[in-house]
Specification:
Elements lengths: L8 E4 L3 H12 L4 E4 L7 H5 L3 E2 L3 H6 L3 E4 L4 H8 L10 E4 L5 H13 L3 E8 L11 E5 L2 H11 L4 E4 L6 H28 L5 H28 L9 H18 L4 H18 L8 H4 L6
Parallel strand pairs: 1-2, 1-4, 2-3, 4-5, 5-6, 7-8
Antiparallel strand pairs: 6-7
Helix pairs in contact: 7-8, 9-10
Bound molecules: NADP nicotinamide-adenine-dinucleotide phosphate.
Length: 294
């Protein structure tokens, strides 16, 4: 394992995120080589001690670890598919956001070109990079991750998810599903309470407690999903569905949007129609696990 700050690192792509990544390596003391299509974006980093490589090929040769973070995977290919570029002997960590299919395809492509590949996802904003708050997910062969973990630690809280290259992207979008669902539920409640003169800040602290309380249920519900058995230990789905109807009625009566409550209710009704009304809420995984039109 490389475990000292002398380990050279290359960062390709110096947008908002790439600059933050390169800066974190520099701050940790790593000799840092950078490359960007628009070279002026390297000026500040060069003043801070980074070396601007004249070509991508030169940047790749600077060390055995290369991070690439550009807009999308098409840009990754445009940068790395140039004829003069060799990936032989490089561990390439692709922190560009995408989906699992692109991640698996990029892994195959990079390995065919001689690289050791890891895919990654950044669950953070640029200003937090280099702090524990920045969570960076990795997937692919574990030995590649372990070999560079102590260098990657300079970026924040780095995590390894498993050998499937697509896992980092899947966790990324699963996290987004969580984020938007919590935010939308909070906005629905805020819209309802504002009709009674309660301001968003007042409701926010109650909503925070609700969200934290519901989060406590996840491990137990996950056990039911993994076991494929959904005894109604707390409440039955049909009880939840009656409460959903109240939410829709209340939203209608208050003159606020009902799209979200109806969406929630539609899946529960379908599950009840399929005979699951007496089971517990996580039985809905069977609805979530199907294509939308099935
Ligand atoms: N910013 C965030 O908060 C954040 C958070 C999590 C994940 N991410 C992910 O990080 C990645 C980069 O985001 P960013 O915020 O750094 O974006 P950005 O500021 O828009 O930078 C985009 C980078 O991609 C390069 N690029 C785009 N197309 C290219 C091409 N065809 N050939 C060569 N280089 C190309 C740009 O080069 P030029 O400078 O020459 O245009 C620039 O370095 C994205 O996948 C994003 O989803 C960002």
């Amino acid at each position: 394992m490389t475990n000292n700050t002398d380990t050279p690192v290359t960062v390709i792509g110096l947008g908002l995120m790439g600059q933050a990544l390169a800066r974190a390596f520099l701050k940790a003391g790593h000799p840092t080589t950078v490359w960007n299509r628009t070279t002026s974006k390297a000026d500040q980093l060069a003043a801070e001690g980074a070396r601007l490589a004249p070509t991508v090929g030169d940047a790749l040769k600077a060390g055995s670890l290369t991070i690439i973070c550009v807009t999308d995977y098409q840009a990754v290919h445009e940068v790395l598919d140039a004829t003069e570029v060799s990936l032989e002997g490089t561990t390439l960590i692709n922190l560009t956001s995408s989906d699992s299919a692109h991640a698996r395809e990029a892994a195959q492509w990079a390995e065919q070109h001689g690289a050791q590949y890891l895919d990654g996802a950044i669950m953070a904003i640029p200003s937090t990079i280099g702090t524990a708050e920045a969570v960076i997910l990795h997937s692919g062969p574990q030995p590649h991750f372990e070999a560079h973990k102590s260098t990657l630690d300079a970026l924040g809280t780095v995590a390894y998810l498993g050998a499937d290259y697509g896992l980092a992207s899947l966790y990324d979008v699963a996290g987004l599903a969580m984020m938007w669902s919590v935010l939308n539920a909070w906005l629905q409640g805020t819209a309802l309470l504002r009709t009674a003169g309660v301001d968003a800040a007042t409701y926010a602290s109650f909503a925070q407690q609700m969200a934290a309380g519901v989060a406590e249920w996840l491990p137990g519900y996950a056990e039911q999903i993994d076991a494929g058995s959904f005894p109604a230990e707390v409440s039955a789905l049909e009880t939840d569905a009656r409460a959903m109807a109240h939410l829709i009625e209340e939203s209608n009566a208050a003159g606020v949007n009902t799209e979200l409550p109806k969406l929630i209710n539609v899946m529960a009704d379908r599950s009840i129609a399929a005979g699951h009304g007496g089971e517990q809420y996580p039985v809905l995984i069977e609805e979530f696990g199907k294509p939308s039109n099935a």
